[in-house]
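Predict structure. Chain length: 328.
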Amino acid sequence: MEAENPGGMDVDLMDPEILALVETFGCSTAAYAREHKQAWRRMVSEIFSPPRVTKMIKLMPSLKLLPGFALDLTELDPFDQLPWDFDRADKRDRARALVLTQKPMFLIGSPACAAFSSWQTLNAALGRDRDGLAHRDRVRAEVHLRFCCELYALQVQHGRYLLHEHPTMATSWGLPCIREVLEINGVDLRRSDQCQFGQIDVHGGPVKKPTTFMSNSQCVLDALAKTCSGHGGSCSNGAPHSLCSGDTARRAAIYPAGLCKAILRGIAHQLKSDGYMADGEQGMQDPSIREVVHHLQAEDMYCLNVDDPGGSGARLCAPIGEPAKPVR
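Prediction complete.
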């Protein structure tokens, strides 16, 4: 992943040198200090999903995360009060614009996977799609998946994170658009069993539902890398696994609360590791100055103007780490 901090250094954005740099740029240090203390970006957003992870954020205030958009056929676009139907090019354009303008630090994608099931592949191989409906659904699903992958690439390109989920056995993992995302530096896979996060059927029986996650966040992948240690059809808790098909499979399309919580804990850990969040702060701080400062510090490209501490009234200039000299 392309890091936001090219120098790999830990920078305190309220450091006197940084404030002096802000003043040198002709900005108000008081305004910068106010903005520094305000939470800004919608940090976590979902696409091809109703509010699931973003909804759980409200139930976990201690993580100090902020929910962003959740775009799905079950949700209405406030622009025209129509569903987010990504069969339509204009809705895909709107969603792309939202990603580009809101810049969510994490974008979670969960496009429909039914068309990529092993049963659909088998039926197609046996020529059972005489009316062409399965082929139509497959083409539609691939359009959605390619769009998701386009947004994932945008996330990584701008130094942000993606999280994609599909069943482990889904044929979508072999499609070119997914393989292209996987070739991006820092993007990796983790396998998980949803019974470990509380996935159950209508009777309370554990549903294994092997799931694979793709992300460029190591913290999120680590949080989700839980597989069932049970044997012989039994879950690790001793109960038999319920077969994930029919109504049970449809119910299992909804993330259990434990899975949403694990994702959010991984996100919070990643943002703290990256220096975007700190204990006691709500949300993230605007990185516009952060990005400029990191770049300039890494390249030693700027001079820091400060008052002469000797009281001469002269302005001194020096790259970071070097003695200040009078400005000529």
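Summary: The two ends are 42 Å apart (CA to CA).
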